[in-house]
Amino acid sequence: MASTTEVAAAKYDLITRRLQEVLGGDSIKAILTEGKRSPKCYWGTAPTGRPHIGYFVPLTKIADFLRAGVEVTILLADVHAFLDNLKAPLELVAHRTKYYKFILLAVFKSLGIPTSKLRFVEGSSYQLTKEYNLDNYRLCSIVTEHDAKKAGAEVVKQVESPLLSGLLYPGLQALDEQYLDCDFQFGGVDQRKIFTFAELYLPRLGYAKRAHLMNPMVPGLGGGKMSSSDPNSKIDFLDPPAVVRKKIKSAFCEEGNVADNGVLSFVSAVLIPISQLRIERRHGDTGADSEEGQEALGDQSPFALEGAPEGTVFSIYRKEDFGGSLHYSTFKELEDDFENKKLHPMDLKTAVADAIVKLLDPIRKAFEESEEWKTTEKLAYPDPNAKPEKKKKVKVYTPPPPGKGKNAQQAATKTSATPPVPVPPPGDDTIQAAVEAAKEGEVPSA
Where does this chain mainly localize (predicted)? Predict the structure, then answer.
């Protein structure tokens, strides 16, 4: 039977595997070694642009946290989304927050991660309180403009004349660690400057210094950072198969070049980790998370072809004429083959596109089956080219006063224009009858 120290070490290895950097890991080790409680973490996202498949990196990693017994909070940072320069007008934030929650829940289920173990929190639920705002003012009284601007340089949209809202962003993210009661914050390596800002300033407010874990960033399809604001660099979670294949086909993937290769990086950061996750689940290796996979959506098999050798985490189909299919148990093997030009870019692209289509299929189905989600999507991301619908003017009839109006005028015209009916002159018989009646004193009838 493993000792307490060995169990703690195994959990720490699980928590930190495949990360690019860890700051303050000793505090996590101490909690695990003491064994009195579970570590607590939070991962946050600001609901601005449409989420893209780069989100698979942190969301897949959350499975490791749950396996290690970590209590996970998902922050939907709606206030941050408003503060981030020019990204999300206030009137759209509520719709986008709701849209993000739909997406995240569908992605977690597609990965087999039990959503019942996740706590979802909207930033505005506590960031508008008196206590939080007083702490924000305290922070503003000790943070220099230089430090605030430097902390948000990789995250907050940079413009020539920065708004004050962008300078507040790093401080609020630091305070979130205290108000969400976490032991460590998890995010991309692009958040590093905000994390070190929090480590410096939270203790100055009398709060504990937290640990920070960072996952690598997936390069965009054309190189550089995959960004929600650049449609050519990313694949959306709801992109249909034809769009996915077209984007992957046009992605930068030069033969033999393993630097800044978004296609290769996606295999390393997303596809192989998900394959490993599914293989481990098949073997029952889910640690403290006995519920993993119970509410999974879609095909949960690893990205290996039928008949692939045991331990294969990624397969690439090729016809026998071209040497037959390739099977890899590690990313290093695949990367070496690509660098040595044993693996052609088109074969790699085809395999990656097939895997992404497979990953996105249950998410798209969940979207198509939810009328509420589809309505939310239209409200959150209205078509900028759509012409506003012209509303037909409804005519309201107001009766004219007596003797006025069209009908009254027509009646008057008709009365004046109609000649009187002529009365024929009396004949001889009538005259004679009148004379006889007058003699007898009678009045003739008409």
Answer: cytoplasm
